[in-house]
């Protein structure tokens, strides 16, 4: 049985990458942890995109305006797919080949810019201590997708995209994306306690079976 969205490990190193990991892309029927607007709200609070008070505020609006709830969920899913395509194109293997499609990534950047432009149009300048900042999420019905559009912009403009990794599917990993923040830049698994140890245990079992078969 799939985990609840609030049980998902946050391994991405940034909310935008954790967003990408809310969709299991392997297999014939990928599981979407953002199954409805309620799951989206709970996940957004979990990763710190919105506060407790904002959860209640958005929840009330979405309960009264179901069309707005569906639109918010659809917008977040679109942003998720766009970020995935862009980051996948930033991942290179040992031969320098990219894991994604640069053309698809280019189209995704255009769509993400449109999402961010809408979010920025609804944002406002606020004086915060000694600086002025752009506050996203001033319209409750669009608060969640606007904050997530802001997170998508942040990861693309401020993160070192050469440090984006994908948990190696061909070696038994899950395929989740993460920022390798290790000093050596050699992190391979989303979490060693999960995929890393599971793959090592599976390989050990296979070697033992092969050894028994050769002895018999």
Describe, in plain words, how this protein is organized in 3D:
The strands form two sheets. The chain has a two-stranded antiparallel sheet with strand order 1-2. Strands 3-4 form a two-stranded antiparallel ribbon. It has helices at residues 15-20, 37-46, 52-64, 66-90, 102-122, 143-158, 192-215, and strands at 124-128, 131-135, 164-166, 177-179. It is mainly alpha-helical and 216 residues long. α3 (52-64) packs across α4. 53% of the residues lie in helices and 7% in strands. The chain has seven helices and four strands.
Beta strand count: 4
Q: Which value, in Å, is the CA radius of gyration? A: 20 Å
The 3D shape can be described as globular
Poorly predicted spans:
201-208
What level of helicity do the residues show? 40-55%
How are the strands of the biggest sheet laid out side by side?
1-2
Structural class: mainly alpha
Question: How much is the average pLDDT?
Answer: 87
Number of helices: 7
Strand content: 5-15%
Q: What's this, in brief?
A:
The protein has 216 residues and is mostly helical. The protein contains seven helices and four strands, in the order H-H-H-H-H-E-E-H-E-E-H.
SSE blueprint and pairings:
Blueprint: H1 15-20, H2 37-46, H3 52-64, H4 66-90, H5 102-122, E1 124-128, E2 131-135, H6 143-158, E3 164-166, E4 177-179, H7 192-215
Helix pairs in contact: 2-3, 3-4, 4-5, 4-6, 5-6
List keywords for this structure.
single chain, 216 residues, mainly alpha, two-stranded antiparallel sheet, two-stranded antiparallel ribbon, 7 helices, 4 strands, 53% helix
